[in-house]
Amino acid sequence: MAPETPCFNQLWSAIILKNVTARNVNSYIRKTCSEYYTIPPGFVFRGVPILLKAPMLVGLKMRKKKILLPFSKPCYGTMLFELDAAAEDFLVLRSALGTGKVKKESKR
Fold first, then answer.
1. Residue 56, class by beta-carbon neighbours within 10 Å (0-12 exposed, 13-18 middle, 19+ buried)?
2. What is the pLDDT of residue 94?
3. Taking the complete model, does pTM exceed 0.85, yes or no?
4. Per DSSP, what are the bridge partners of residue 56?
5. Are residues 39 and 50 in contact, defined by beta-carbon separation less than 8 angstroms?
């Protein structure tokens, strides 16, 4: 019996975008997330290598405790997933991915 390996399907909770380009993903994340970072292909998150064709953005939604994470599946193309996140997940991404973009909140 082969050892069980980490699978991306164990991470995600909802598909936000399906069969899209990196440009679509990056644009969506810039518009909807207050904080985002560039994630390289092969980055390991929660023990799962993130398959991407090129670097893309990963978005953090602090108030909703969600992470928007791109992933490319060979037979399905690039997708954007929304994952439930703990405070530790945000810290891991910030420390591993370095400087990112944090939008200033408007004072309405």
1. buried
2. 93
3. no
4. 39
5. yes
Count of alpha carbons within 13 angstroms of residue 27, beta-carbon side:
6
Total length of the chain:
108
Q: What is the mean pLDDT of residues 38-62?
A: 92
Q: In the chain, where are the structural domains located?
A: 20-97
Q: Which long-range contacts (CB under 8 A, 24 or more apart) does 40-46 make?
A: 43/96, 43/97, 45/11, 45/69, 45/92, 45/93, 46/6, 46/11, 46/89
Q: Report the alpha-carbon distance of residue 62 to residue 52 in Å, rounded.
A: 24
Q: Does the pLDDT of residue 1 top 80, yes or no?
A: no
Residue 33: closest CA among 78, 74, 70: 70
Strand 35-39, strand 48-49: pairing: unpaired
Q: How far apart are CA 43 and CA 47, in angstroms?
A: 9
